[in-house]
Amino acid sequence: MLTPDDVDFLDRQRVGHLATVNAEGQPHVVPVCYARVGAWLYVPVDAKPKRGNPRSLKRLRNLRERPDAMLLVDHYAEDWQRLRWLQVRARASILESGAERVAAFDALERRYPQYQDMGLAGLELPVIALEPTSVRRWTAAGTAGDVQGATRRPE
Amino acid sequence: MLTPDDVDFLDRQRVGHLATVNAEGQPHVVPVCYARVGAWLYVPVDAKPKRGNPRSLKRLRNLRERPDAMLLVDHYAEDWQRLRWLQVRARASILESGAERVAAFDALERRYPQYQDMGLAGLELPVIALEPTSVRRWTAAGTAGDVQGATRRPE
Fold this sequence. Notes:
The structure is a homodimer. By secondary structure, chain A is of the alpha+beta class. Chain A is 23% helix and 34% strand. Chain A has helices at 4-12, 58-65, 99-111, 113-118, and strands spanning 16-21, 27-32, 35-37, 40-44, 68-75, 84-95, 127-139. Chain A has a 7-stranded antiparallel β-sheet with strand order 2-1-5-6-7-4-3, sandwiched between helices. The first copy, chain A, is globular. Chains A and B meet through strand 1, strand 2, strand 5 and strand 6 of A and strand 1, strand 2, strand 5 and strand 6 of B.
């Protein structure tokens, strides 16, 4: 589902935007760091424990109630011919323990030295696992297609 | 609801992320350009007509069915002490004509020379009007508070 171009783009960008839906059916979006392991994407919950229980964060509450998520990764430039984005619709699960969570933290620490510095993997935080269910992609230059193979304007 | 700091931040950033919910209750998020007029925010629908009817864009279909939207404007930096975001929950309406739409296009063209170059205002496109209903804000440095007055970690 993710093409080599998608993977390259995901790995080069530094921030994504994770959209979820709350219990009232309202949209919610937050900037997130993410790392890719194979075809899966992982988003850490990096709230400091002193700020309250990180497991009560709204994005986690939302995902427990509705596992549908969308991760949007885009590149903005004042030269709009260089605009590009990738929309990943995904099924989310929350990992509290296990080997997959360890691998996710490894990938996050490799990608973000900031997480290494804070010792992310040792903080006993959950991580959001995103299993892509469909991918759409768009570039202003029209060189990429969406999952149906056609180039479209952003929706 | 928008503080002077919020307004300054919104006016300086160049891209936002608009989250909506589709008819199936799934989240949707797309990068958008926006302009502020007073306390309202406007997002153009800049699909080229040749690509199909811009009024059928998913974000418009979503908003007609569910007027709840969230516009997230954030700043990313590798120095995470400089991270900042503003979440604007809003009621969306779609303007097809009228003075408010003209003022929105004026503001968009002033803010983005790219829109001037393409003659946005002359393209007879609709514009999304976002009426903020609540605002939350966050900075890594902890200098800003949310609408309840407390500084929080991102959710």
